[in-house]
Amino acid sequence: MAKSTPLQSKKQRPARRSKLASIALITIGLLATGGAYALFTTSATADTTAGSEQLISQGSKLFAANCATCHGMNLEGTKAGPSLLGVGAASVEFQVSTGRMPLAQSGPQAQEKPSQFTTEQTKALYTFVASKAPGPGIPDKTYLGGNGNAAKGAELFRINCAMCHNVAGAGGALTQGKYAPALTGVTAQHIYEAMVTGPQNMPVFNDKNISPTDKANIITYLKYLDQNPSPGGFDLGNLGPVSEGLFLWIFGLGTIIGVTVWLTAKAN
């Protein structure tokens, strides 16, 4: 049998890749992937930052023209209005989009009215205010769909809200000319924002008091009331036994007295 020469043995051996070459290839791959990701995220961040800066600039101008007289140029507040430092985007969105701010006139309570700002202007205002100090943000749409537990929401509403807003959300009078507004037809976002910011005389219900899920349950209950009118007929404003008793006293007893007088007069 012929013996293989050293040259033939070298040709028959499979070529081995150097360990350094493998490491180099892996390093090049990682650098390429990381570089592409960094470039993409930097571009996205730059676009977001530029958009935010534009909103803040627009909001600053709107604030100076419409709000600074009462709240101060630096949101520090004045004798005519409270500080807005730390109120968050949710508070500004609620007050501005419901027309409560700017105030039309001084009074015990800000009145709801058509907003004088567009949606984009409102966004610019709350972005500007939120940029000055942290505070409650715009609520996640996950909790605004009205698809929570209505029964649980009704229980929470009776415990925490009904003493002012009425068990059916019809609203009610408070002291010194103030009142708890009716909740009929109020948007889910505004209900949530009111709970986390406590406008007017309303207490603040943060996530430790009422969790976001339970806030969604309360919203579900209120939306259920909107979509299901009173099955008993005329609800008399959902004001409870006082209005019902007054109705019976005036119309029921009045009718009985009228019939009695008519029968007596006819007999005579």
Structure notes:
It comes from Galbitalea soli. Pfam families: Cytochrom_C, Cytochrome_CBB3. The structure is a single chain. The chain has helices spanning 6-12, 19-66, 68-71, 88-97, 119-132, 150-160, 162-165, 188-197, 212-227, 241-267; strands spanning 172-173, 179-180. It is mainly α and 268 residues long. The protein folds into two domains: 41-135, Orthogonal Bundle (Cytochrome Bc1 Complex, Chain D, domain 2), CATH 1.10.760; 139-252, Cytochrome Bc1 Complex, Chain D, domain 2 (Orthogonal Bundle). A hairpin with a 5-residue loop joins strand 1 (172-173) and strand 2.
Q: Regions with pLDDT < 50 over 5+ consecutive residues?
A: 42-48
Shape-level CATH architecture of the largest domain: Orthogonal Bundle
Q: What class would the helix/strand composition place it in?
A: mainly alpha
Order of helices and strands: HHHHHHHEEHHH
Give a short account of the largest sheet.
Answer: 2 strands, antiparallel
Q: Please count the beta strands (DSSP E, at least 2 residues each).
A: 2
Just give the CATH class of the largest domain.
Mainly Alpha
Instruction: Give the overall pLDDT as a whole number.
Output: 85
EC number: 7.1.1.8
Subcellular location: Cell membrane
GO cellular component, one term: plasma membrane
Subunit structure: The cytochrome bc1 complex is composed of a cytochrome b (QcrB), the Rieske iron-sulfur protein (QcrA) and a diheme cytochrome c (QcrC) subunit.
